[in-house]
Amino acid sequence: MASINFRKLHRQVAPIIFIPLLLSAITGVAYRLGEDWFGIEGDAAEIFMVIHQGSYLGKELRPFYVLLLALGVIGLIVTGLTMTKFFGRARPERPGAKLDFRKVHRIAAPIILLPLTVSTVTGVIYRVGRSWFKMPKEVGEVFLNIHQGEYLGDFLMPIYVFLVGLGVIFLLVTGINMTGIFRKRRPQTTEEDS
What we know:
This protein is an all-alpha fold.
């Protein structure tokens, strides 16, 4: 049986969920901060939640969107973990290496790992549970409260959401820069140029 190249899998999954996860992170933060700090309510706040959980796809597809996005995030977490020293597969760092996207990504990932995992898992349990399994609202609220850090209290909850969202955006930006998508292409030389 061939071994799985987790680094390659990580690099292939990341660009696929980049835009949906970026939108979900930005709108999740905007919703929470808009409500708590700026007093935005009603339809103005709800537009952020529509984007955050993919409600623009329709009520029937919303749980599929959340589930697929969550599976992508969990996949990135698992494949990312396999590239760490915990599993003995981390590439050795060059002594005196400058601070680049890879190094920053490697430093930030362990910091955001636990809050991102908790938020992802509880968010998908809430949405899928409420949509497909008719989870009672009271039970769903427990998962939603954990998802958005409500257990930290009114003061810390928006800060927690902001930091988790910022961490996700940071990992997305540093990670996508390592894929080579934004690298400048070298001009091709022809025989006439030589």
